[in-house]
Amino acid sequence: MSDNKKQEKDFTAEVDALLPEAESTIKSGKLQEGLDKIFTLEKQTRNAADLSSTTRLVKAAVEHCYKARDFTLLNSTISVLSKKHGQLKAAVQAIVELSMGWLDEIKQANGVPKWLEVVETLRGVTEGKIFLETPRARVTLLLAHYHEGLSNASTSTPAAQKESLVTASDLLSDLQVETYSSMDRREKTEFILEQMRLLITVARQKDAEQTKEGKETLGGGEAEWVKVRVGGRKVNEEFLKEKENEDLKLKYYDLMIQHALYQNNYLDVAKYYYKVWETPSIKDDTDDKGRAALEHIVYYVVLAPHNNEQSDMLHHLFVDPALSKLELH
Question: pTM of this prediction?
Answer without folding.
Answer: 0.90
